[in-house]
């Protein structure tokens, strides 16, 4: 049996919370983004997500129970397995198997191959609880290689025109993907300290990213590309008064409404999430009897039902039998 308590999933059979937003005695954490990771007393997670969490939790006291991908472990009558979600470094999905069948919690995931992390897997299961952030037909992302080429061309044009190109990217995941794309194209890179810190964790985990200098307001001369978190939209001190061009890295930028650019000059649909076709593809590959949805458009339920898929949005069901 699992239930939804305070918008957090709880698996009673295992006494295990899943991506709980409140501190718990024991919770599985799918990845290190702040909307999923908390410093629980005991954090069950992948090896690389633990690295990320340790860097982000700082002085918080948390103990980690880590598991490699695709190395199952038993808890009572259930077998649990973590496997790649392809979202950010260390992001995992959770497979729970027992007498009543198999259940997968995807967390945030992406099927499109990445330039900086391991690809996602899809496992067949009886029930899947999946995110549907981009669960509407207008959210179709171009191939990642095409997005990468457009980013590089835009940055080079800005530099040729004497402007400082600034990419707004989340410090975990998107920033490292941008470093891989732009750095491998030979562009000099400088990044905000938060991005630089997480990139060092990627390096510790064995990810070979191009060189990216840490931003210093006293020494940055405006030569090259600057990577900045979207939360810090005020221009960095070193470029104030300079000619700058800004770009937002977000899947929402495929929408025609320019509000998704967040005030940037342009946007590139570089996303850590699955687009609409990938969400459908995931269900096709997993072949579940039941699809539960969270974290996204609720009307994706009706789109699945029209395809003959038994689907419902989890929030409307405070308590459900596991299968």
Q: What's the level 1 CATH class of the largest domain?
A: Alpha Beta
Helix fraction by DSSP (H/I, runs of at least 4) = 10-25%
Q: What is the quaternary state of this protein?
A: single chain
Q: What is the count of distinct domains?
A: 2
How would you sum up the major sheet?
7 strands, mixed
Which parts are unreliable, with pLDDT below 50 for 5 consecutive residues or more?
none
| Helical run tally | 6
CATH architecture of the largest domain: 4-Layer Sandwich
Inertia-based shape: globular
Gap between N and C termini, in Å?
Answer: 8 Å
Report the β-strand fraction as a percent range: 25-35%
Give the CATH H-level superfamily of the largest domain.
Ribonuclease Z/Hydroxyacylglutathione hydrolase-like
Say what the CATH topology of the largest domain is: Metallo-beta-lactamase, Chain A
Q: Trace the largest sheet across and list its strands.
A: 6-5-4-3-2-1-20
Structural class label: alpha/beta
Total number of strands:
20
- State Rg: 20 Å
Would you spell out the secondary-structure blueprint of this structure?
Blueprint: E1 2-5, E2 8-11, E3 16-18, E4 26-28, E5 42-46, H1 47-57, E6 63-67, E7 73-75, E8 78-84, E9 92-98, E10 101-105, E11 127-132, H2 144-160, E12 164-168, H3 174-183, E13 189-191, H4 193-204, E14 213-214, E15 225-228, E16 244-249, E17 266-268, H5 276-286, E18 290-296, H6 300-306, E19 311-313, E20 319-320
Parallel strand pairs: 3-4, 4-5, 5-6, 10-11, 11-18, 12-15, 12-16, 13-14, 13-15, 16-17, 18-19
Antiparallel strand pairs: 1-2, 1-20, 2-3, 7-8, 8-9, 9-10
Helix pairs in contact: 1-4
């Amino acid at each position: 049996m699992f239930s939804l308590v305070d918008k957090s999933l709880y698996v009673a059979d295992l006494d295990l919370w899943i991506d709980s937003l409140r501190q718990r005695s024991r919770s599985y954490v799918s990845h290190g983004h702040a909307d999923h990771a908390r410093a629980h007393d005991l954090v069950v997670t992948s090896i690389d997500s633990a690295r990320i969490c340790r860097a982000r939790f700082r002085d918080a006291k948390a103990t980690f129970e880590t598991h490699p991908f695709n190395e199952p472990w038993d808890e009572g009558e259930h077998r649990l397995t973590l496997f790649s979600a392809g979202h950010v470094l260390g992001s995992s999905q959770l497979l729970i198997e027992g007498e009543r069948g198999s259940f997968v919690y995807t967390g945030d995931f992406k099927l499109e191959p990445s330039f900086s992390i391991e690809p996602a897997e899809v496992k067949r299961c009886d029930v899947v609880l999946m995110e549907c952030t981009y669960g509407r037909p207008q959210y179709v992302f171009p191939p990642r290689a095409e997005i990468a080429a457009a980013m590089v061309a835009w940055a080079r044009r800005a530099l040729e025109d004497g402007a400082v190109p600034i990419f707004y990217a989340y410090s975990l995941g998107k920033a490292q993907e941008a470093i891989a794309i732009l750095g491998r194209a030979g562009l000099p890179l400088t990044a905000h300290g938060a991005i630089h810190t997480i990139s060092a964790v990627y390096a510790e985990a064995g990810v070979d990213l191009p060189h990216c200098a840490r931003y210093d307001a006293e020494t940055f001369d405006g030569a090259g590309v600057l990577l900045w978190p979207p939360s810090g939209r005020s221009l960095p001190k070193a470029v104030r008064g300079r000619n700058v061009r800004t770009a937002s890295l977000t899947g929402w930028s495929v929408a025609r409404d320019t509000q998704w650019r967040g005030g940037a000059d342009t946007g590139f649909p570089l996303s850590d999430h699955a687009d609409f076709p990938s969400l459908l593809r995931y269900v096709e590959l997993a072949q579940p009897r039941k699809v539960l949805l969270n974290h996204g458009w609720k009307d994706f339920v009706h789109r699945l039902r029209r395809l003959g898929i038994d689907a419902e949005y989890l929030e409307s069901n405070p308590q459900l039998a596991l299968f």
